[in-house]
């Protein structure tokens, strides 16, 4: 499950899936080189430690509040395993007394598969609720991920690992 090789394979697949021409021919060499350059920026060992540390159980629906004795609820689990949120792209926001946001999320599951999830968040004062729905593997959904932004976010995720702020896991 948690191996550097499987993490690297999953991310290389993600970075390279979008560079195939419509007729099935491999894209230009400079596009491949650009993807490889982005992947070279990643420290896969640190990223794997971070992914392991940040793994959580996402739920299809959840509510929570900051007030004392606020009602908290968790529905069924979104996946049949824990996962780590790698990337969130907020596509719509409606601010007011009640804030509503729609986002697309990229999750890495413990088995090192990637899933795309649609999320709607509602925040009212100190109370929040989120609804998530699995959209599938990214290459099946047509969701576009800015790979430069993803690379920056993945490197940012590793900050606590580089600073020695998270434990080292035996993987």
Report on the architecture of this protein:
This protein has one domain. By secondary structure, the protein is α+β, with helices and mostly antiparallel strands. Strands 2-1-6-5-4-3 form a six-stranded antiparallel beta sheet. Strand 3 (83-94) and strand 4 (98-109) form a beta hairpin. It is globular, with a radius of gyration of 18 Å. The longest helix is centred in the N-terminal third of the chain and has 13 residues, at 4-16. Helix 1 packs antiparallel against helix 2. 32% of the residues lie in helices and 30% in strands. The protein has six helices and six strands. The protein has helices spanning 4-16, 29-40, 44-54, 138-141, 147-157, 159-162; strands at residues 61-65, 73-74, 83-94, 98-109, 114-124, 127-136.
Order of strands across the biggest sheet? 2-1-6-5-4-3
End-to-end separation in angstroms reads: 9 Å
Proportion of beta-strand residues: 25-35%
Number of domains: 1
The main pleated sheet reads as: 6 strands, antiparallel
As residue ranges, the low-confidence spans are 20-24
Mean pLDDT: 89
The coarse overall form would be: globular
Structural class: alpha+beta
Task: Kindly list the characteristics that best describe this protein.
alpha+beta, 171 residues, 6 strands, 6-stranded antiparallel beta sheet, 6 helices
What's a concise summary of this model?
This protein has 171 residues and is α+β, with helices and mostly antiparallel strands.
């Amino acid at each position: 499950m948690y191996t550097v090789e499987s993490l690297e394979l999953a991310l290389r697949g993600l970075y390279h899936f979008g560079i195939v021409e419509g007729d099935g021919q491999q894209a230009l060499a400079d596009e491949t080189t650009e993807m490889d350059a982005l992947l070279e920026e990643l420290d896969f060992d640190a990223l794997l430690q971070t992914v392991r540390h940040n793994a959580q159980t996402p739920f299809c629906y959840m509510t929570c509040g900051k007030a004392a004795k606020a009602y908290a609820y968790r529905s069924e689990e979104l996946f049949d395993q824990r996962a780590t949120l790698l990337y969130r792209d907020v596509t719509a926001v409606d601010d007011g007394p009640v804030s509503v946001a729609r986002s697309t999320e990229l999750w890495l599951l413990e088995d090192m598969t990637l899933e795309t999830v649609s999320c709607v968040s509602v925040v009212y004062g100190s109370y929040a609720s989120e609804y998530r729905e699995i959209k599938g593997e990214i290459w099946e959904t047509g969701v576009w991920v800015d790979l430069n932004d993803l690379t920056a976010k993945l490197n940012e995720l590793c900050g606590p690992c580089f600073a020695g702020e998270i434990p080292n896991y035996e993987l």
